[in-house]
Amino acid sequence: MRFNIEPLRFRHKPLVFYTITHGVQYWFNSIIEKKGFQYHRSSNRKKKLSYYYRPAKKNAPDYNAPLVLVHGVGGVSFYTPLIEDIANNYAGPIILIDLHFVSLRITDEIPSITDQLECICEILDKHCSKNAKATFVGHSYGTLLLSS
Questions:
Q1: What is the C-alpha to C-alpha distance for residues 38 and 69, in angstroms, rounded to an integer?
Q2: What is the pLDDT of residues 8-45, one digit of tens each?
Q3: How many CB atoms lie under 10 A from the CB of residue 50?
Q4: pTM for the full model?
Q5: What pLDDT does 5 receive?
Q6: Which residues pair with 20 in a beta bridge?
Q7: How is the chain split among helix, strand and coil, in percent rounded to 5?
Q8: CA–CA dist 35, 88 (Å, integer)
Q9: Nearest Cα residue to 50 out of 58, 34, 39, 60
Q10: How far apart are CA 4 and CA 6, in angstroms?
């Protein structure tokens, strides 16, 4: 197969598949809210990058950099045990980027890599400070985004 010449072929999944994946996302939301995370929808229609944010714990040292997790194909809900462990053991602020377009959910637009990176910078500026240092964790598609 010649990826740069042949057309991209894709198939939609049955509606029940998307019903299940959206249901898993609602389940994840209920679990993650108990850990102190708040869901933030993107207000920018072009970029459409939503995220979960948990502020630093009250006993957190001032030097704890924000931790930014960018998930891979399948969605952030597949990382539930990891996120729970991090939330229990990390006192600093945590940002979970929610990439709908690689989360097995219905979406109509895919933002460019540049738009995604700009949005992550805006999220850090909003919740932390301008030019804040952060620790980034990426898996699968998340590493592609973070390495750009």
A1: 15
A2: 676 778 889 888 888 998 999 999 999 999 999 876 66
A3: 18
A4: 0.86
A5: 73
A6: none
A7: 40, 15, 45
A8: 8
A9: 39
A10: 6
